[in-house]
Specification:
Elements lengths: L3 H13 L2 H37 L5 E6 L18 E2 H7 L8 E15 L4 E9 L2 H5 L4 E4 L4 H5 L4 E4 L1 H7 L9 E4 L2 E9 L4 E2 L2 E2 L3 E5 H8 L7 E2 L1 E6 L5 H16 L8 E5 H44 L1 H9 L4 H38 L7 H27 L3 H6 L2
Parallel strand pairs: 4-11, 6-8
Antiparallel strand pairs: 1-13, 1-14, 2-12, 3-4, 3-7, 3-13, 5-8, 6-11, 7-8, 9-10
Length: 410
């Protein structure tokens, strides 16, 4: 009787005798495994990056934005096409009796502005807001300070700039205490924000933050001095974020005298943004992973094809072994082990290729390609399974050969 050790040795010898054919057979599997690993890794990396960017907006964040509106001619504008939010809305939401689960409110207006210092000129995003913006957006000051309520009330000409803005405007001097021009208006820099990186489509490090009253009086182009671009709110904690969301939405619907169907604003939470982004990236990852998985199927078909060729070439060998007492089970096991080795080797090389690809793509794409260890082990099991499954038919065909017919074969 032929033991497992002898079967393994014989299988390795048979594959080694046909090295080029074995290598080409494994190619389909290893490319499929690497493609699936990288596709899933890219999807998980993108999801993690988007989640990180959303979380960088602030903690327990609620965002109120203008929605579509209907003009006098009956035409409906898209979301954000009209200034439907005001400072009165912000004051309403800051009332503990109206929204008890809201901890802080920061009405915000923003526009692109032309900046100039004694050293350089630059174009950046200018934000008009209140001191609570720093808390709601979870921003810290690296140098200097943030402006106060007193400076908001007095419409002081002070500004806090982002790290990238400071680098562009001041190459040598300390920005704090320097004077800059914003759209031709003089402002004193009182602080520089710590780096926060990019959040979604914006660069939060390239910005200038000024008191809301100063923005309305000296920088705003809106005809309504009380209008704001958006309202950022912070829930008391993660557990009460849903309640705060409902309180904000209910209060604004009543204040604007509209229903949910024709509301001129939208309310979104940090959790809903993360959920939406994760859902989208998950669907894309699944689709791309399915496409990459097709290559695994092709690789399995390649293994089956090569094993069938191997059976045809080794008919006399099979006949001789059966004539010497080898049972159909031993013959079947022989070819299954060969197919399994092809699948296993293809999986191991494919996993190595996946790790190498992740290391190369991470700096190229500027995004971490997250290789999951459980997914990697699953890929190895799948590759072994593909090899065995693809070898079942050729092995069964070999086991059924009659010894006398096999020995007569040319």
């Amino acid at each position: 009787m032929m033991g497992w050790a002898e079967t393994l040795r014989t299988a390795i010898a048979a594959l080694n005798a046909r090295r080029m054919r074995s290598l080409l057979t494994m190619l389909g599997i290893l490319i499929g495994i690497a493609a699936v690993m990288l596709t899933v890794g890219l999807g998980q990396g993108a999801s993690a990056q988007i989640t990180s960017q959303i979380n960088s907006l602030g903690s327990n964040l609620i965002i109120v934005s203008p929605s579509q509106t209907t003009t006098s001619g009956g035409f409906r504008g898209g979301g954000g096409t009209a200034s439907t939010l005001t400072t009165q809305d912000a004051a309403l939401l800051a009332d503990p009796a109206v929204a008890p689960d809201v901890a802080a409110v920061a009405p915000t207006s923003s526009a692109s502005g032309s900046l100039q210092s004694t050293e350089s000129t630059w174009t950046s995003t200018v934000i008009g807001t209140v001191p609570d913006w720093q808390r709601v957006r979870a921003r810290e000051v690296a140098n200097g300070r943030f402006f106060t309520d007193a400076e908001v009330n007095s419409s002081a000409s002070v500004a806090v700039i982002g790290e990238d803005t400071a680098t562009e405007l001041f190459t040598s001097a300390n920005p704090v205490g320097q004077t800059i021009s914003i759209n031709g208006q003089a402002f004193t820099v009182i602080g520089v924000l710590k780096s926060a990186g990019s959040s979604l489509a914006s660069n939060d490090d390239d910005t200038v933050v000024v008191p809301s009253t100063t923005y309305a009086a000296r920088l705003s182009t809106s005809s309504n001095a009380n209008s704001v671009s958006s309202i950022y709110l912070e829930g008391k904690d993660a557990e009460s974020l849903s309640a705060a969301y409902q309180q904000v939405k209910t209060a604004l619907l009543a204040s604007h005298q509209v229903t949910s169907d024709d509301a001129d604003f939208t309310v979104s939470t940090q959790a809903s943004l993360v959920e939406t982004a994760t859902s989208i990236t998950g669907i894309v990852t699944l689709l791309l992973g399915g496409v990459a998985g097709i290559s695994l199927l092709v690789g399995g078909i390649g293994v089956m094809n090569i094993m069938l060729v191997s059976v045809s070439e080794r008919v006399r060998e099979i006949g001789l072994r059966k004539a010497l007492g080898a049972t159909p089970a031993i013959i079947r096991r022989q070819f299954l082990v060969e197919a399994g080795i092809l699948g296993m080797l293809g999986g191991v090389v494919g996993i190595a290729l996946g790790f190498i690809g992740a290391a190369i793509l991470t700096p190229v794409l500027g995004m971490t390609v997250m290789i999951s260890i459980p997914a990697t082990l699953l890929a190895l099991v799948v590759s072994l399974g593909i090899g065995i499954v693809a070898g079942v038919y050729p092995a069964t065909r070999a086991a059924k050969l009659a010894p006398i017919d096999a020995l007569r074969s040319e």
